[in-house]
Amino acid sequence: MNKFELVGMSEDSFWKMVKVANWPTDRYEKVKIRYLKLMNRETCHNFRNTVDNAYIFLDEAVGKSVSGTGDDGYSDLLSHIIGLGKKEFYRNIKNPKLAQKRVDASNYRESFSYCIPYDTDYGEDSSYTLDSVIRSAKKAIELIQGYRAMDDKTPKWLYMISDDLTYIETVMKDFVNSNSLGGLMYLTQQKKSIQDRCMHIYKFFKDNYLELPRKFTDNTDRGLPTIMINSVVSEASKVNEYLK
């Protein structure tokens, strides 16, 4: 039986690293952090390329036997089979009809490939650093201050969410000013509260979208882009977990 091309590692090492993922039980971010801690940039780069080669090899074996997935679903299926490990991978190479049985049973998950770090997840530009979260928090502060600056006339339009904006801005400023791992922990602990506040802000803009002056709703779907604020605390959580 032909083998897929291995990049900078033995096949035994490759499948051991696949097994580390505990796929499909653990969530993507947890697996990604695990890989970041276990592999340096070069090793992870080689691992990703080897996964790509395993994907191509599996595709050549099972492609003609699989239908009903769509392009994205097919990609998820093959990545899922790789994530399940060596034994399942070669079972499908030997008997491609097993892949269709998995499709028929909807027995695959999106997508093992999301767990594998990219080169950009390493080094100074990585999002897995304290500085990265600080940069994101500063952008959130600028966003809130920008909306406050637009609410410069009477009657005030944002009074119903003023407490929410103040709370989020204060938490972000406290974190930025602390410039510390303790501050990162603090920001992580505020995740649920900030998400709840963002939901209230989102609902305000959604409910008042037609009445609000255009300056509050231009260039956004429903006004203040709370997705960016939520992403700050999500980023803080993953960095806090990575640095443990």
Written overview of the protein:
By secondary structure, the chain is mainly α. The protein folds into 2 domains: about 110 residues, no CATH class; about 110 residues.
Keywords:
mainly alpha; 244 residues
Write the layout of secondary structure elements.
Elements: H1 11-20, H2 28-38, H3 41-62, H4 70-83, H5 86-94, H6 97-104, H7 130-150, H8 162-178, H9 181-189, H10 191-207, H11 226-242
Helix pairs in contact: 3-5, 7-8, 7-11, 8-9, 8-10, 9-11, 10-11
Report helical residue fraction: 55-70%
β-strand percent reads: under 5%
* Rg calc: 23 Å
In sequence order, what are the helices and strands, one letter per element?
A: HHHHHHHHHHH
> How many β strands by DSSP?
0
| Alpha plus pi helix count | 11
Distance between the termini: 43 Å
Largest sheet: none
**In total, how many domains does the architecture comprise?**
2
Mean pLDDT: 93
Secondary structure class reads mainly alpha
> What coarse outline follows from CA principal-axis ratios?
elongated
Low-confidence stretches: none
What's the short story on this structure?
With 244 residues, the protein is mainly α. The chain is built from eleven helices and no strands.
